[in-house]
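Why does this matter for the project? Reviewers at the last site visit asked to see concrete outputs rather than summary tables. In response, this paragraph embeds two records directly. Each consists of the residue sequence and, immediately after it, the corresponding structure tokens. Nothing has been edited or filtered.
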Amino acid sequence: LLAFCCLVLSTTGDHLRGFCSQTLNPDGKPGFPKKINPHDPGVLQAARHSAESFNNCTNDIFLFKESHISRALVQIVKGLKYMLDMKIGRTSCKKIQHPILDNCDFQTNHTLKRTFSCYSEVWVIPWLQKFEVSILHC
């Protein structure tokens, strides 16, 4: 690519010199995971699916939801694969009530308060509206 840039530069003049001196892919190689803002809507949606998977796997009477995402990576692989380091906390909502997690506050009762540190990988295929939590370690 650099050789092509220099060839174009030599035939078109100096107005491409700034482009040719740029690092074209500073974040790494295509297909490799890259850091993404933990507040990105896709990250938040992946974290919610992770919390819902956790709720489906526990016998806890209360629901858990994501409380903090400390690190998020995304990789483009036939969709998007999100890799998250996150915390999930016990809410005051009971599973039998089937509440919406957005409406659930975290436990304030000291004896019921519980938090887990988790690593999760969520594969998202947006055009199929498919979410799959492939790894969840808490």
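We now turn to the second protein, recorded in exactly the same manner.
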Amino acid sequence: MTETAVCVGTFTAVKTLWEVRIHKINEELQKEKEFRQRLLLVWEERAALAKLKEKVIHEDGRAILRIEEEEWKTLPSCLLKLIYLQEWQLHRTSLQKIPQFIGRFHNLVVLDLSRNSIESVPKEIGQLTNLQELLLSYNRIKSVPKEISNCVSLERLELAVNRSICDLPPQV
């Protein structure tokens, strides 16, 4: 009986060793997979930034991001690398959402996002104190945040043909 116990003990030890090795290999494969995913995201972000930079023009001393009739349902966070922009003109891009990081574009004077699919305006819009024109016609906007009243330089606000909009905040 002693011999059987030795065999079982040896078998258990070998099995445990292999389980540990398999677990380590699986962990390493998972780490490699995560690394590849991060690397892919970095390359996609670089490609998106390069594409955005191609869309920047300089006109009348202003840096303008102009995109028309292209598919941009969301705007990538790499857009923050173009923080110097003074004007956004994004028409017919199927944009569904104004990014929350919009508030970091303190140099924006004109924000023209007309003819898209935007449903809401983030409260961060109120951080754009230099904004003079906010053009959001032909979207799907349902409400406008009260923070829009913080845009002290705002001279022009267009919300035409937003059929779901009920009312504006009293501050506006």
